[in-house]
């Protein structure tokens, strides 16, 4: 695997008063909301469109986006606070009762070198945004992460279903090396193993140590960290993927390639493609809306 902190191999194979608003800002905000709600998987937006203006417009009576879609590489992303207001404007019921205590916990800042294996811009631009600062129902948390990191919410819903069936208490990637498991989780089971991966997206401790303990204890922190890593890949900062085994040359802007990299730690290899196919299947089926998925 590459030198990045988040390189994974063999993860099952792997792994954000009154205010006078100038007319131009109001228009920019309205455009931003419309772009988030428009048709198409990847939005083509102007970098001048201000997400801050967008939330002001929403607060003044505009509607919050009903669906968060993928924003292109290099986009100015909405803040976590803005996404929280949008998500809470469209509340949803809890469908995973097991998550209630995890959903009421927020997160923590990451280490400043969390993405040190990626291009330096990743630690400068992405890492400071991660804090897991949201509480709500499971679906609201996943929508918040999708909004914050500019990824289609249905991809997030489907990937979280593949990883954990939306259950934050899920554990995986069991191994015999206790040092690769989080502190307080190093007692070996009857097979002499402990879990390395935790949570709704199955974040893996050895590659994300500064996200602990909250990546395991907070649904929001788990999702925030996972899609920060996805955005680093999507924005083109994981150039180390071109130094290891790969199915083709890594480049920015490949939504599904970066989904597959979460599992395989490699770019469009056979395991990555198999994982992508499963996520696409769940997305097509809208598995999160099926009766068997509901566990309130």
CATH topology of the largest domain: Lysozyme
List how many beta strands DSSP finds.
Answer: 3
What letter string, H or E per element, gives the SSE order?
Answer: HHHHHHHEEEHHHH
- Please tell me how large the radius of gyration is: 19 Å
| Residue share in helix | 25-40%
Number of domains: 2
> What global shape is seen?
globular
User: What is the average of the pLDDT values?
Assistant: 85
CATH class categorisation of the largest domain: Mainly Alpha
Main-sheet strand order equals: 1-2-3
Structural class: mainly alpha
Distance between the termini: 39 Å
Low-confidence stretches: 1-35, 37-62
How is the main sheet built?
Answer: 3 strands, antiparallel
Based on the structure given, which CATH architecture of the largest domain is correct?
A: Orthogonal Bundle
What proportion of the residues form beta strands (DSSP E)? Answer: under 5%
